[in-house]
Specification:
The structure holds 2 protein chains of 2 kinds. Chain A has no helices and 11 strands. The relative contact order of chain A is 0.35. The chains are: A mainly beta, B mainly beta.
């Protein structure tokens, strides 16, 4: 089975940097995904990690440590439009993508 | 089509009724997924199709839920004898192949089901 933990809520200031952590336990591992979901909208893909290390994509970066069962999403130069839920998900030994409960990020002025 | 299309966008029904939710995936995407999302929660996996067959239906909560994909494209999620606890947003997603590897899921806007 799989278990994914991430904080329920976070608040950060416009222009700042925020790190959203995700820890997991799984019997198999194929990849770690991060999705963004604005209220009332569909989730959209942000990043994917399969090997340990940092993947950078513009203002967003994602890190993975498979030995520690740990990932984080780093958002730089925060903008008000970044206020959303951030979903950590992983594919284990099977072929399904399982999500955590999501972290609701609020960006304030 | 250009994106994943789900109909209806909203469905209100009475307890005990039968409901069908439809998903039209991106053309050429062989993998199709159904998720259920309640307020403040992440999407909960229900079922995954590879082509016409259900590759993993371990997330279906009970035998009132059933999904088909007869021609490997459009899928229908069927809920019998609906209960108030079935109220949620039902999300459909598709991808080119299975989710292993960097195969990104593209989600539809969802069907909001309310059972009175």
């Amino acid at each position: 089975g799989q278990n994914i933990d991430q904080p329920t809520e976070m608040t950060a200031t416009e222009g700042a940097i925020v790190q959203i952590n995700c820890t997991y336990q799984t019997s198999g591992f194929n990849g770690l995904f991060w999705y963004q979901q604005h209220a009332g909208e569909a989730p959209t893909f942000l990043s994917y990690n399969v090997l340990d290390g940092l993947e950078e994509k513009g203002r967003f970066s994602s890190f993975l440590s498979r030995s520690k069962g740990y990932s984080y999403l780093l958002l730089k130069e925060l903008q008000m439009k970044d206020s959303a839920s951030y979903l950590c998900g992983l594919t284990g030994g099977g072929n399904k993508l399982t999500f955590g409960t999501g972290t609701q990020l609020k960006v304030e002025l | 089509g250009a994106g994943v299309s789900q109909t209806p966008s909203n469905k209100v029904t009475e307890k005990g009724k039968y409901v069908e939710l439809r998903c039209d995936p991106i053309s050429g995407h062989t993998a199709l997924y159904w998720y259920r999302q309640s307020l403040g929660q992440g999407p909960e996996f229900l079922i995954y199709f590879q082509g016409t067959g259900a590759a993993d239906d371990s997330g279906l909560p009970n035998d009132r839920f059933f999904a088909v994909r007869p021609e490997g494209s459009v899928s229908t999620l069927k809920i019998q004898r609906t209960e108030r606890g079935d109220s949620a947003v039902y999300l459909c997603a598709s991808s080119k192949t299975g989710p292993s590897g960097a195969n990104v899921l593209t989600f539809g806007a969802g069907s909001r089901l309310t059972v009175l």
